Amino acid sequence: xxxxxxxxxxxxxxxxxxxxxxxxxxxxxxxxxxxxxxxxxxxxxxxxxxxxxxxxxxxxxxxxxxxxxxxxxxxxxxxxxxxxxxxxxxxxxxxxxxxxxxxxxxxxxxxxxxxxxxxxxxxxxxxxxxxxxxxxxxxxxxxxxxxxxxxxxxxxxxxxxxxxxxxxxxxxxxxxxxxxxxxxxxxxxxxxxxxxxxxxxxxxxxxxxxxxxxxxxxxxxxxxxxxxxxxxxxxxxxxxxxxxxxxxxxxxxxxxxxxxxxxxxxxxxxxxxxxxxxxxxxxxxxxxxxxxxxxxxxxxxxxxxxxxxxxxxxxxxxxxxxxxxxxxxxxxxxxxxxxxxxxxxxxxxxxxxxxxxxxxxxxxxxxxxxxxxxxxxxxxxxxxxxxxxxxxxxxxxxxxxxxxxxxxxxxxxxxxxxxxxxxxxxxxxxxxxxxxxxxxxxxxxxxxxxxxxxxxxxxxxxxxxxxxxxxxxxxxxxx
Length: 479
Prior knowledge:
The protein is of the alpha/beta class. The chain is built from 17 helices and ten strands. It is 45% helix and 11% strand.
């Protein structure tokens, strides 16, 4: 052994798995091993009691020059992730003051939640915001194309050096089709307009995306990890087909996507989920002739997990979500505030959400290692398992006409309904434990006074989109 080599572990001294299993069987009984020592997650994922070096196949070990297992870009997130804070636009003046306060104290970009298309003045909203430094994302449940056009008109009318501006337009026709805020007879024309807009944005702006692939919406309606990733992949392919048909090169097409996925409270599952997603997106890229490319991934804790009961527990949930997203290598991370179940978050809620990021980044320094979970036999095995099952479901979608067909026929909505009902049943029965919901639940209700959200556009599944874990007990009689 060279003098400068440090050997931390001698594998020759490690007991074989067979020996461990025999000892475990002697304690719990051979017939009880599967029931006692193994556990199941949604999406037919299984957690083993122990992982060894041979548990998973060898995974690629190098940092890619584009999206891959280890990161979404060559340097990983060693300069820190993009802290993106959501702001609902109720009053333009107060929203502007709030987002400027956020940006001055550590937030790196802003997500503007616009519920009604074209009713907000970007000139007033973004006064004082340097768009070549602080990115702007747009989201909402309807009118995403109209909002994007409105924003681009604002840039062309009042901004200099606009080609350097950073923004995500958030156009989401497939997501709107899913929830029913975009009618089926409008979808094809909307998709064509979106594709042409992506061409324009790609030609004129270096740091912008056009299309938001919203896996967060799939998770909010009930999709488990496997179904969410498969839906994201199939949505990506649907958009790529549309762009290819209209002559947009694949190299340019991939740059126009923001992939948004959910992160929950199972930290290892969420870390593996992000790693698996990147592997599968790379697989799609290779099928399109793109070996190396960049694509931006945003992770966010879904509103489903933000409870109205004992809202302080929400801080724990979002901290785990942020840690998982950062460790898994998300480029952009957004956390709902602890008080967002009560209405538009106030300055205190925004500050706590912002400081959750900053404490993990500036004090814990979890961004200073690329893929810190890499090499863990458990995480590597779980990454592989998620990738295999999600890819299989994605292929099923494609063989059955693609994701748009799944949405139009209602097949995807039915899948997530079953998954949502199973989740609810597990919580009610106690099979799945959620602190503050079915364990250590606060008996005294907390009522925080917050300004109401703007009226949401009605959609076919609006009640599902507003559903939260604190609503589970009140509906338990139905199960």
